[in-house]
Amino acid sequence: MSFLITCPTCGPRKGYEFRYGGEDKGPRPDEAGLTPEEWVEYVHMNRCVAGVSKEWWFHRDGCSAWFTIWRDTRTNLQVQVSNDGPEEQS
Amino acid sequence: MFLLPSTPLWDTSPPLKSSYDAVLIGGGLHSLATAYYLARDHGMTNVAILERRFIGYGGAGRNTAIVRANQRTQENVPLYQEALDLWPVLTRELDYNLMFYNCGNLNLCHSEAAVTAARMNIASAQFQGVGSEFLAPADVKRMVPALDVSDRPRHPIHGAMFHPPGGIVRHDAVVWGLAKGASEQGIHIHQQTEVTGIRAVDGKIQGVETSRGTINSPRVLLSAGGYSAGLSHRFLGVRLPISPLTIQAMVTQPLKPLLNHVVSSGAYHVYCNQTLKGEIATGAHMDPWPNYTTQTTAHYLKHQAEALTDILPCLRGVRFMRHWAGLADMTPDMAPIIDGNDPVEGYYLNCGWGYFGFKSCTSTGKYVAQYLATGERPEILEPFRLSRYKQHRLMGETAGAISYTPWN
Amino acid sequence: MTRLSELPTLRIDPYEELRFEYDGRPLTGVAGDSVATAMFASGVRVFSRSLKYHRPRGLYSLDGECANAMMAVDGVPNAAAETTPLAAGMRVGPQNVRGSADHDRLGFLDMFDWAMPAGFYYRLMHKPAAMWPIAAEQIRKMAGLGEMEPDHRTVGRYTETYLNAEVCVVGGGPAGMRAALAAAQYGARVVLLERRPWLGGSFEHRLRSLDDGTPAYQRARDLAAAVKAADNIRVFARTALIGTYNDNLITAVQRGANGDDFDERYVEIRAASIVVATGCIERPLLFENNERPGVMQIGCAHRLAHTYGLLPGRTAVFSVGSDGGLECAADLADHGVAITCVADCRPEGHDPELVEALRQRNVPFLAGWVATAAHGRKKVRGVSLTALDGTGTRDDSCDVLVASAGRTPLAGPVTMAQGKLAYDSHTGCFLPASLPARLHVAGRLTGLEDPAAIETSGHGAGLAAAADCGRAVETELRECDERLGQLPGPAAGSGLVRSPTHGRKAFVCFDEDATVKNVRQAIDQGFDVPELIKRFASVGTGPGQGGLPGHNLPMLVAELRGMPPESASPTTMRAPMVPVSMATLAGSSHDMCKRTPVHDSQKLPGAIMRRIGAWRRVRYFSDDLLCRAEVRNVRTNVGMLDGSSLGKFRLWGPDALNALQRIYVSDMAKLRPGRVKYSAMCNDDGCVVDDGIVIKRADNEYYLTTSSGRAGQTVEWFRYHTRYDGWDFKMVNLTDALGVINLSGPNARTVLERVADARVSNDAFPFSGYREFTLLGRVPARVMRLGFVGELSYELHVPSSYMRAVWDGVAAAGTDLGIANFGVEAQNIMRMEKGHLIVGSESEQRTTLNDLGLGFLWSRNKPEARTVGSVALAQTLEQPDRLKLVGFRMDDPEHTPRDGSIVVDERIRGWVCVARNSDALSQAVGMALVDEPLSGEGTTLQIYEDGCGGNLATARVVPMPFYDPGGARIRM
């Protein structure tokens, strides 16, 4: 990966220090009454947006924090540093 | 040129009709093969392939052309085995040379655990009648003298799984040959025609919207490779367990014959083969975050050189010349999703092929065609239902918990 | 060949001779020569044979832009002779020839081009079917250029360097140097990359005077001196760009010079801002035999003379499309070359000064004329020219034909960084139309021709780059833009691609022997866009990296299809821009292997080490791969194993227990100090990802272990699955901070008593206990009593810095008993006998915690914890037909199936994870994952081993553990 990611703790660092952690799907659902359909949506299903995507990254070779960024999947560029990002769009 | 007709191999600009019996989204190998067999086996010729760019522009033209049928699980092997058998058959049928070069695949083992995994694959292959055998390092050296089988490499070679029926196929030729075969039977291949929507009413497929107008059709097959999952979500709100990742490959400058077999190594994360043109084609790495860029990375160019030269030291003097990337639609169990009529009637999926969609495209197209034409799921496609994820019955084509997703 | 020795532009020392060998013949060059120029000086004209037709090829670009001058140099194939500096003693040889480059027995193939139209192999070579395998082997032999011996070893110094720059300037011509100077003047740290050994670009070899009367070459040298004098500009000469990537990452390859500590090195730069000033290459003119030896580009002829002192020939004809050709013709006339005529495909718009210069030298100038064919077999002997308006033709004899249709900007660095190009009808070029952030372009790349404009654009780009780095440049940048606006803009270019010719032997791509006719054939067959033609007719896929056909292919396609040039789109440009050897890319080839703190104590004679995950560990302590002595010593006496690679973590804080409850399947609220708790982690499919021990040391203070392979991901895993919760817990990976000794065997307590500063009797320290005490009087240790190998066993966790002392102390304390090391395989055998599984060995993606028989670990009474895996475990609990882990005993105690054998009946029903001939049990036993219907006790399993030829072995499912089922030995 050639692009930079801005870690909220460490600032801009090269992408290979990080690990991608999936689309932002919200907190783990309550177990009570959870159907297999709901669960598989949460665990495995992705939107795969061709555009700006809000997603989790982990600073593996750094501060060991998980954080979210907005990245444009068509350019591989982070489009917003802060957590108050734009709406996801495709 | 007197020997060859100088007419288009396929009809490059058929009229776009307002209605087809089936619409196939994506101009890659799986669509082309499906179209070909729809016409050949089921007489369905009122069929359109819709391709945003050019046929074979995606994974079909970006893979490293390796074919084999030594997969880990018995659910997977039959499709790949049939595909291997089909290369010479299709060459004849299509009257187009797919250039199947049956050189065999050598998969190196660099640890006791890798030998165990190889033994399992070999036993599975042999039990199913597929050629595969274990080779000791000395035999490996005899087959590929350029390999360093000494203790020097960081991962010394403990042996190899040799799979004689495999080899390489000229990937572009498969695209063109199938386009020719489909077009000759009346299938319409529409290039530079982007699908912008899938229409469904009351849970039934009605057709598609395209950059060139509306098309009515009771059946839509989504086989758009790396773009499938995003399109499925965007058009129908149907999410899939897929991550579209870039996978990279590269070739060296052309050399006289040096590698007489496909060589691959899990520990080094490389596979390589020498094309008929003499270039050493090599790849394997995926950037583990979803994207649609098909960008290459500096990191990987370097990694590949480090890895290859550790086991094939003579390659230190060889230069890389071209480097490219394509999309791989990875599923958590490294097996595809082939399904239909769930949750929308008339909506068929053939995607999630990851980086192995080339090897199996012909046989899969044949069965998907049967599925589309009859509405009945062929037995061989049973294991690839989407519902397996809901049931926590992943297919196990990858042995361990996978590493490219964060939830393992 | 005599050299021009008085020119001020020369880069050679004509008096320092270097001897080398070409194709077995001794030749001589001089210092400063490239391999190619030295060969040319020695009279070589045919440098290679082409890929398909074996046509003779000669010097063409002098910059390695095609395979024409690719050689084997010192055993390394495909070396670009034009850019490889000559060194004394080099052994150089031709490639892809039968005989020599001059006399190639395959040269006749050129007559059979009609039999090899575009894509002929797809249409012809499969009939009859039996022929194809034979034909394929023939193709392999015929294809390829250089030869690499399987046992060849490339020796040399290959290194790497990684830099952060504020401004990186790509291209050391006048624009690039001005950009570097401008940015440096504002204090920016600048890196300047130049492919040639010297700075100067298009000025460097030219004698012509600029507006102020300074000769161009002198101006180049003045700028180079200024660059050298600037403290904050670091120049990388002999450095070719490999690629530009997102967020201004640049990679390059640098060739070492005298005094450097490397022969070649990989350079990677992250810059805040980039200036691309890569200039132009020449665009080949398409006419018949446009690649005959003797046909060369303007820069090639000009630089042969001015840089290397070599006249390209005696009699020259020019067919060009830019003023540079006129300038070169005038210069060569001055050096004594007879210029028969200069044809320029542009009917007007020539630099009047240059037209006058030609007139003064009595050189006929033909405006609106172009070459249609070169004549001669191995060397050009003549040329046919035609007026583009059809008013005349002429034939001239010559021994050099300087041919060029115009210029192609080297815009690859822009498009690779996600910039876009657009066709510009004024210049007839694809010019940068949109640029990525913090990347600027300057010089001839932007279409400029005027020297002052080139320099000014470079200055402006340097200022803009400085602005990206936070420098206040507004005023000067505004002035610079104004000045540039007053200077001449881009010069009109000839849109001409192809001279009026059929194109049977007019080569679009030299490397792949692809002609205009082949492109037409491809279009006729339906391949009507450049990306498809590139794939079908292999245009631009050769060692020249697509530079020469990069412009011509899309333009030719547009022309042949009758479409406007604006509709043309070039094929995608990708790194590497230049061929890069793997030795250079591999560089120092870092091997990131971890060694335990007692690594040296493990390297005993006969020990066989393996890389296991990130670590190097001893798998066997002798060549007995069944490890009988190691096992026996543990089973009957006492052994010690270096287990330092075990993952070890401290977890603490108010929410530490919440985190444990989320991650582990067991109820961690039940932990009691002084006791170990074995548990497992699942993923959200219920698949076991790891197992290990958790210890509660105090309230909100835990110590836990993971498998070696999982240690690197454990913090990530804990944090991932709690990322929405905002919990307050901390976690530190202690894996490298603490070493581990596994002390096992019936005499383990005796040994431990001798080194422990605490009571360790069975009562004081029972099975499953955890204690902290000192060893050897001073070393703090965390000690747990476990039973992985099935014997009385202690795990001693001690600070890494004391590990060697403790290891030696324990070994000394057991010497009289016969304590001995045991390795990973002995441990593997013993834990298998004990029925303990290893995650990844006896589990896989298809198996849940329940499938492995570990369901007892799962606490269903903590739904509020939302434990990872619990949902899937509940949903799969009653599912039929899952894989289950079973123990089995072979019916034939003498036969042990290999690990990885499969279990079959009609179909594959499972596989053998591990099986060993157990010395302790005198049985062959193992563990397998089998379909549930086969998992019942007493079921017969049929085992198929690779190579068994259908002769199945049989085994019976038996309860585990096989060894000491009552567990008395671990509690003794």
Strand order of the largest sheet of chain A: 3-4-5-6
Write down the overall geometry of chain C.
Answer: elongated
Query: What structural category do the secondary elements of chain C indicate?
Result: alpha+beta
Strand count of chain A: 6
Total beta strands of chain C? 48
Q: Report the uncertain regions of chain C.
A: none
Separation of the first and last Cα atoms of chain C:
94 Å
Runs of chain A with pLDDT <50, length 5+?
Answer: none
Give the topology.
The complex is a heterotrimer of chains A (about 90), B (about 400) and C (about 950).
Chain A: E1 4-7, E2 11-14, E3 18-23, H1 36-43, E4 52-59, E5 66-72, E6 77-80
Antiparallel strand pairs in A: 1-2, 3-4, 4-5, 5-6
Chain B: E1 22-25, H1 29-42, E2 47-50, E3 66-67, H2 77-94, E4 105-109, H3 112-127, E5 133-135, H4 137-143, E6 159-163, E7 167-168, H5 171-184, E8 188-190, E9 195-201, E10 204-210, E11 213-216, E12 220-222, H6 228-236, E13 243-252, E14 262-265, E15 270-274, E16 280-286, H7 298-311, E17 319-330, E18 337-340, E19 347-351, H8 361-374, H9 387-390
Parallel strand pairs in B: 1-2, 1-12, 2-8, 4-14, 12-19
Antiparallel strand pairs in B: 3-7, 4-6, 5-6, 9-10, 10-11, 13-16, 13-17, 14-15, 15-16, 18-19
Helix pairs in contact in B: 1-5, 1-8, 2-5, 2-8
Chain C: E1 13-22, E2 25-31, H1 35-41, E3 48-49, E4 56-57, E5 70-73, E6 76-80, E7 91-93, H2 120-124, H3 131-142, E8 158-170, H4 174-185, E9 190-193, H5 216-229, E10 233-236, E11 239-245, E12 249-255, E13 264-276, E14 280-283, E15 295-296, H6 298-306, E16 315-320, H7 323-334, E17 338-344, H8 352-360, E18 365-367, E19 369-375, E20 382-387, E21 393-397, E22 400-403, E23 406-409, H9 412-416, E24 420-424, E25 429-434, E26 439-441, H10 451-468, H11 474-486, E27 507-509, E28 514-515, H12 516-524, H13 530-536, H14 549-560, E29 580-581, H15 582-586, H16 599-602, E30 608-612, E31 615-620, H17 628-636, E32 639-642, E33 647-652, H18 656-663, E34 676-682, E35 688-698, E36 701-706, H19 714-720, E37 730-733, E38 738-744, H20 748-755, E39 770-775, E40 779-786, E41 793-799, H21 800-814, E42 820-821, H22 824-833, H23 870-876, E43 883-890, E44 902-904, E45 908-918, E46 923-931, E47 940-944, E48 953-958, H24 968-971
Parallel strand pairs in C: 1-7, 8-9, 8-13, 9-10, 13-26, 15-22, 16-17, 16-22, 17-18, 32-42
Antiparallel strand pairs in C: 1-2, 3-4, 5-6, 5-7, 11-12, 12-13, 14-23, 19-20, 20-21, 24-25, 27-28, 30-31, 32-38, 33-36, 33-37, 34-35, 35-36, 38-41, 39-40, 40-41, 43-46, 43-48, 44-45, 44-47, 45-46, 47-48
